[in-house]
Design goal:
heterodimer, A: 278 residues, mainly alpha, 11 helices, 80% helix, globular, B: 324 residues, alpha/beta, four-stranded antiparallel sheet, 26% strand, elongated
Chain lengths: 278, 324
């Protein structure tokens, strides 16, 4: 399995996916530094706690708006053609006739993607939190930061598992479109949830919007995990009442659903891959 | 390894896809060290059958084994090398790295892996270009790399699906020579090829597949033996002499000549043809021709080429794998 994991890393490095992402991330972080500096600027010479909190939340939202997208797209575009695309190109045929069980190949590829993109997500998380901390201060509650990090990292296996599952079902390019749409639907669910909190509409309309948002978030829970992560970073893990987040953050139940979603997508993908004809 | 155990054995092995194509009820036995040629037009189901044998597709019915191990099992895959028909290696890797990856999948490591990789690349003529990225390889080079990968594990059985289709004439000849050498080393070869010359030169056994069915099978020699024809270019011919020759030799001799108006027109040479069993018969016929005062310009065996046999066998049949 080590051979397959190493080959996956080599693929991502040689195809310059990671390099391009890292260069653009460095550019983003430079811009993000100035954005954070501008947002956090205290013109009056003093800042109350509420003002600092609002500014910190705004900086984190901006940082993880980019962070969530870039991790999602890196995960999707690196793995969307891993099975069907490689089978179409004829890469898989010579590999799968080697004396290794198919499950080892599948898990090796999964670990390869998750570990490398996870490492990138870890660096990005640390960079965004550090920049925010420099300009707007961060709580020193490492428990909350640790849970937030886990939630942020949790989007990677969720996306890779879904992408590899899609790759056993659809053509390479078809799965790319499918996964982008799926992630977009999950993101839209989060936006609906945020927007409904600030819209001046009747309670029953709010409830309908909330249901639509929740259903869309269930299709792909990656963005939901991000929203929960941001909520904990700004409010703390102990908070249960939404505060200045423009809508309800995903609940613990949703996080549990995201874990089940990931396991189910991974297991179904593996099961289909083992039965697939090439 | 028990030498009696067939290298490849299938019993009514089938793989039918949803569109009705594939291969049906293929039963064959190939002994260890034999070279088997699998022929058939495009879409006949040859590649499907090979993919079923190497474990890439699950059979719809029947059974098969490689050296006594069920097809698709790890034990069976441990003993094979496979060169797919349409394949590409990751273009971001070099030839050596591709080989190294395959060595890892085979469980070959360290110095042994390095040695095999070097030898393999040299054997197929890639040599030092092994350090180049695959994306810089021509189709022929990629095919050579595929062959090197197939040979990497020193397999007992080699499945080669169109092994030299993208190569130039020199490359084809080199591959043919390599296949003959592998055969001499006792490897079992299963060759899917449109290149009849490869099959004719390398293989002992062959089978023809059409629309998913194996319609003929046997030794190459046997299949072509009945059709050994001899041709004789003779001068001073006349139809009377032909009758005499037929009576005297007891053979069915044909002659290709247009209608003649006068005896003078028989001066031009004429081609006589006969299906003969052996060279003794040809010698006797030569003697009878000369004895009758005809001039023998040329006497040659027209052994039927596999290509002629192939075209004759499939002509007039549906051969594109249409749904039935």
């Amino acid at each position: 399995m080590n051979t397959i994991i190493t080959a996956t890393w080599k693929e991502m490095l040689r195809r310059k996916m990671l390099l391009i992402t890292l260069v653009l991330t460095a550019l983003f972080l430079a811009v993000f530094w100035f954005i954070a500096d501008t947002v956090a600027l205290d013109e009056g010479g003093s800042m109350d706690l509420l003002g600092q909190f609002v500014r910190r939340s705004a900086i984190l939202s901006l940082g993880f708006f980019f962070g969530g997208f870039v991790v999602a797209f890196l995960a999707i575009f690196s793995s969307f053609s891993v099975i069907s695309g490689e089978a179409e190109q004829g890469v898989l045929q010579s590999v799968l006739t080697r004396p290794i069980p198919r499950w080892k190949w599948y898990i090796g590829r999964w670990i390869g993607y998750v570990s490398l993109i996870g490492a990138y997500a870890l660096l990005l998380f640390v960079a965004i939190v550090w920049i925010t901390s420099v300009h707007a201060g961060m709580s020193r509650n490492y428990h909350d930061i640790g849970i937030s990090l886990l939630l942020f990292l949790g989007t990677v296996p969720a996306l890779i598992s879904a992408s590899m599952l899609g790759s056993t079902l659809f053509s390479g390019i078809g799965n790319g479109v499918f996964m982008t749409m799926l992630y977009g639907a999950g993101w839209l669910g989060g936006m609906v949830e945020k927007v409904r909190g600030v819209l001046p509409v009747e309670p029953d309309v709010q409830q309908t919007l909330s249901r639509i948002g929740a259903l869309l978030s269930l299709l792909m829970p990656a963005d939901g995990l991000n929203r929960r992560m941001q909520y904990i970073l700004t409010q703390g893990a102990g908070q249960t009442i939404p505060f200045l987040t423009g809508g309800s953050p995903p609940s613990n139940l949703f996080v549990g659903y995201a874990v089940i979603f990931t396991i189910f997508a991974f297991a179904l993908g593996l099961w289909l891959f083992r039965r697939k004809d090439f | 390894m028990n030498p009696v155990t067939p290298a490849i054995q299938t019993h009514e092995l089938s793989k039918i896809y949803d569109n009705g194509r594939g291969c049906r009820n293929i039963t064959l036995t190939i002994g260890q060290g034999e070279a088997f040629g699998f022929l058939g037009p495009n879409g006949a189901g040859k590649s499907t059958f090979v993919k079923t044998l190497v474990g890439l597709v699950k059979p719809s019915g029947g059974a098969g084994s490689l050296l006594g191990h069920p097809i698709g099992s790890l034990e069976a895959r441990q003993r094979i090398g496979y060169l797919p028909e349409l394949y590409r290696y990751p273009e971001w890797l070099s030839g050596e790295e591709v080989m190294k990856m395959h060595a890892g999948l085979l469980g070959i490591k360290g110095e042994e892996a390095q040695k095999r990789i070097r030898n393999g690349l040299d054997e197929v003529g890639i040599g030092r270009r092994g350090t180049d990225r695959v994306k810089q390889y021509s189709k022929g080079m990629q095919q050579r790399l595929g062959l090197a990968c197939a040979l990497l594990g020193d397999p007992d059985i080699l499945f080669l699906d169109e092994p030299s289709s993208a190569m130039d004439p020199v490359g084809r000849r080199e591959v043919r020579e390599l296949l003959l050498e592998l055969k001499q080393r006792g490897k079992t070869l299963f060759l899917n090829s449109h290149l009849m010359e490869d099959v004719e030169t390398v293989c002992d056994q062959m089978a023809l597949m059409l629309n998913g069915d194996m319609i003929r099978g046997g030794s190459v020699e046997e299949m072509l033996k009945v059709k050994v024809r001899w041709r004789f270019k003779v001068g001073g011919f006349s139809p009377v002499l032909l009758e005499w020759l037929q009576e005297e030799s007891g053979l069915n001799i044909g002659a290709a000549y247009p209608e003649k108006d006068s005896e003078a027109e028989w001066d031009a040479p004429v081609w006589l043809e006969a299906e003969l069993e052996n060279e003794d018969q040809a010698g006797r016929l030569n003697m009878l021709i000369v004895e009758q005062g005809m001039t023998l310009y040329e006497s040659a065996m027209q052994r039927e080429k596999l290509e002629d046999w192939f075209v004759q066998t499939v002509s007039g049949r549906d051969q594109r794998g249409e749904r039935r």
